[in-house]
Amino acid sequence: MNSDDGASFRTVVRMVEGATEPARSRGVGRVPLFAAISVVVLLALTVAGLVGFVGWLILMNPQTKIVTTSPKDALDLAKVALAVAGGIGGAGALVVGFRKQLAAEAEHLRNEREHRRGDRAEQREVYRSLNERFHQAVILLGNKESPAVRLSGVYSLASLAEDWSLGRQQCIDVLCAYIRLPVAPDIEDTGEREVRRTVFSVIREHLLEDAPQRWDGLRFDMSGANLDGVNLDNIKLERSTLDFSRAKLLGGQISLKGLALDGGGVNFRQAQFTAGEIDISGVFVDRGRLSFEDAEFLGSGLVCNHGMILTGQISFEGCRISGSRLNLGRLSPIATDDRRKPAPLTFDDAIIEDGQVYLGALDYEHLEGVSEGVEQGRSNLIRGSRRDGCWVTLKHILLNGGLVSFREARFNNGVISLENAVLAGGEVTFAMARFVASEINFAGVKFKGSTVDFEYAHFEGLRGEGAERETAQWIRGLEKLPVVERDMVWDPHPVAALQLNSAEFWDGVLVLDRCSMDDTVLDFVGVDFRGGRVTLARANCMRAVVNLWNSRFNYSSVTEIVLPDDKLLTVLWSDYYEGPLARIRIPEKVSVLEVSASD
Length: 599
Known about the structure:
Layout: H1 3-25, H2 33-60, H3 71-141, H4 147-163, H5 168-180, H6 187-190, H7 192-205, E1 219-221, E2 226-231, E3 236-237, E4 241-243, E5 248-255, E6 260-261, E7 265-267, E8 272-273, E9 277-279, E10 283-291, E11 296-297, E12 301-303, E13 307-315, E14 320-322, E15 325-327, E16 331-333, E17 345-346, E18 351-353, E19 355-358, H8 376-383, E20 391-393, E21 398-405, E22 410-412, E23 415-417, E24 422-429, E25 434-436, E26 439-441, E27 446-453, E28 458-460, H9 470-479, E29 496-499, E30 504-511, E31 516-518, E32 521-523, E33 528-529, E34 532-535, E35 540-542, E36 544-547, E37 552-553, E38 559-562, E39 569-574, E40 584-585, E41 591-595
Parallel strand pairs: 1-4, 2-5, 3-6, 4-7, 5-8, 5-9, 6-10, 7-10, 8-11, 9-12, 10-13, 11-14, 12-15, 13-16, 13-17, 14-18, 15-19, 17-20, 18-21, 19-21, 20-23, 21-24, 22-25, 23-26, 24-27, 25-28, 26-29, 27-30, 28-31, 29-32, 30-33, 30-34, 31-35, 32-36, 33-37, 34-38, 36-39, 38-40, 39-41
């Protein structure tokens, strides 16, 4: 309580005391107790005598009808007089009781005032003690000579934060501010590294799910810090955000194994990773967000050995990846039913220059390498996870060298979107991946030198409730229509396994060799071909469709499209193009379904 609050409180107390003072100064409350009792006794005797005298006059008056008197009448008269006196005595007892009540209330008020004075004095003493501990801890932490002294300052602030709920955020702010201080080049020799690791250890211990006193709901601002080893394994954030925006990883490892986000977040926006590694193995995101937006990976790596996104997001939007390897192969981002919401895993607007992004997986059944401490229920959920409904977006990315790999990934009712990406170099591989009722969307992509590889991939469309398949029904419906009406291929059709409509295929290679396609559509509607190669050599097709309706081929560049010799493959094409069908060979066994050339 500050001095202003104390002055106000004392003013209120004086007003209350002043309001009760007049009541105690009036009446018998101020008369001495012996005098009051004497007055009451005399008054009772006087009244009794007066009553007895009046009664005697009445009895002896010859004009009254009472002609004779008896001892009983005199006794009754005495009883009446004593009764009146007793009533007055009772009133006197009430006066005495009232006086005692006033005395008790006065004593109670005095005790309350003394108690409040004692509380205020005790509170001032507690505040003074806490402030002294805070200043002493800050002085210890700011010691430039001895790392051991600074370590004692770290533990002193942590202990103070546990004891001082009102000043807890202030203590955490000082610890985080220490992390934001510049790091000397000889950090190892000075022992500074151990001091900083101790700060993170203290923060971690209070963010564990089973911590005796959790610091969740507070601010942890370490923006712009130079990091050289961070261990925050198994923390759980529900209302807090760890802010590492604009931080720099100079070496070591940022370990976030077993991270659980249940409404909270970790922010690495605009961070720069030039060395070391970030490990988010076992991450579990539910209503939280892990952000690497606009970050730069310039020589460091990122690994995720199993993890799951139920709701929430892990975002690499706008990041730059050069000379780094990001391995998210065993992360399962579960799609929501509402595709208007942000994708759970996104690389939108990223720039990949001689970097590697791994989004495939070899094994979904075993949980290896996940850090200890992950609760059993969450561990089982991650262990049994697959890419059912997986949703990954790489919209507007620039690939200019390096690799984006979905090799051996498995998708069930999922979506992978590279809409409007620019593939100028490097490789995107889906080799040996399996897609069941899933879509890979390359709509609006500019192919300008990259290789997109689906070798040995497997595509399997949705199965109908009956014996007939949805794709086959759709093809038969088109076969029954006249040619001029077959331009209705824009109408709803089975989910495309590979979607390239309106893309610019100016160079590069799209490899679908030896892949298998069951009840799926490869949609090349409106693609502008100006060179490059699309090959489906030796592909195994079961009621698959290659839709080349309204695609365009330029005269100056030769585009090669190689189709398999499979009788269960259907090609949709129109008889009008901007250029010749250069090097497009349609085998005799392949069914050709001509579509109207009208736009």
